[in-house]
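Action item from last meeting closed. Structure (169 res):
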């Protein structure tokens, strides 16, 4: 099953630099049953683009990274690999329905807002939040809060794209 064209609104038509790049992956048993995800990107060259939003499902890529793609006969751009790292990380947070935050995505945002993190919510029915963590952020404090929130039953979280700085923090 493919991910519906959810996410940020379609960009205005213009110079053709803004495209959607699609990623294929094998669905995991503990995940949503999708096998593709489309991410908005800015075309940088004939076969490269910079990812402009945070992935909900695709692992190993973060907002701001440059990816290579091929374009099929239908004009769909398919990612084939990462060309350049952004220095950003991607984390995903799912509030626990029976935890102190309930299914409140806004409450998760409020706890991460002091770090300047922006993110997106998958849907009102499934309040999975995906955040971009910039390389210059207080990585140690963010990790500490994420672990504490999980230990206190606020949420589950995962890091789907980590830098060496994140791993060392």
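Sequence:
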């Amino acid at each position: 099953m493919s991910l519906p064209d959810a996410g940020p609104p379609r960009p205005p038509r213009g110079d053709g630099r803004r495209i959607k790049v699609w990623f294929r992956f094998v669905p995991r048993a503990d995940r949503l049953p999708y096998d593709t995800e489309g991410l908005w990107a800015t075309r940088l060259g004939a076969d490269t683009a910079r990812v402009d939003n945070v992935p909900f499902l695709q692992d190993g890529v973060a907002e701001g990274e440059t990816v290579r793609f091929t374009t099929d006969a239908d004009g769909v751009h398919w990612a084939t690999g990462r060309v350049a790292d952004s220095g950003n990380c991607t984390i995903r947070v799912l509030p626990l329905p029976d935890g102190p935050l309930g299914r409140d995505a806004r409450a998760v945002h409020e706890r991460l807002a002091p770090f300047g993190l922006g993110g997106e919510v998958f849907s009102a029915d499934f309040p999975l939040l995906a955040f971009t963590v910039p390389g210059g952020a207080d990585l140690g404090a963010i990790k500490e809060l994420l672990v504490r929130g999980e230990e206190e039953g606020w949420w589950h979280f995962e890091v789907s794209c980590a830098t060496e700085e994140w791993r060392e923090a």
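Note appended to the action item: The helical segments are 105-112, 139-151, 164-168.
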